[in-house]
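Handout, section 3.2

Students often ask what a structure token actually looks like in practice. Rather than define it abstractly, here is a full record for AsmA domain-containing protein. The first block is the sequence as you would receive it.
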Amino acid sequence: MGNVKRTAISLATLIIIVVIGVFIFLSSNLGSLIVDAVEGFVSKVTQSSVSLDSAEVAISGEGALKGLTVGNPAGYKSDNAFQLGAIKVALDPESLTTDVIRIKSINIEAPKLSYEPGGDAGSNLQQLVKNVQQFADSGKTGDEKAGDNEKKLIIDLLTIQDGEVLVVTPLSDTPIRTPLPNIEMKDIGKKGGGSSASDVVKLVMQKVTSAASSVGNVSLDELKTKLQSQVGDKLKAVQEQSGSIDGIGDKAGEVGDKLKSIFK
């Protein structure tokens, strides 16, 4: 009986040690697991390169993602579509074991978006939205069917603050900077009892793209004035280099074509 008791105690002690070890392992490696998951999923959804510097998650359900960068679709000159400085997340830990994960809040601070007009979709951001839409549709009807067991999401509040849009033009290597209006979205996925992750990404991307596009449209006259000023500087440089007006007509035509590609 004594041996059995000692064995039972030893076994219980061993189990406790294993559980503690697993907990410590998961706690120390959870950040890297999240980084891998985010990079893999977002890259798959947007069909572009994605990198995330770090992720931190507490048992309370609060966490932070830092340094999320999403590359541009093929065919655009700027390297990245957007960079997110810091993302703070607060979720309901109890919902993790249910079919619908409830996220109390997501706060995105100081994002930088590159808005580059052109391409089949109209801009780089619109192309990303198109890519996300294609992924969402394939999940419903294609081989990558999500299935009934896919986790759903409800987001009580999502805010984007202190953002900046970098308008990229073919006339200059230096983008034109303009503030991004603050964005607030409430009860995402709540009406339908939860939304898939890809649908949430699509919805947020549409909202962000709309805001970035509206900024571009509102400041279009200002942008055009700046571009025309740049054109004038380029023509003046050509004139000074040639010492005459020879060749200015060709240069003006070239610049005019670039302007048309932006404002068509």
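Discussion prompt for tutorial groups: The first helix runs from residue 2 to 46. How would you have guessed this from the sequence alone?
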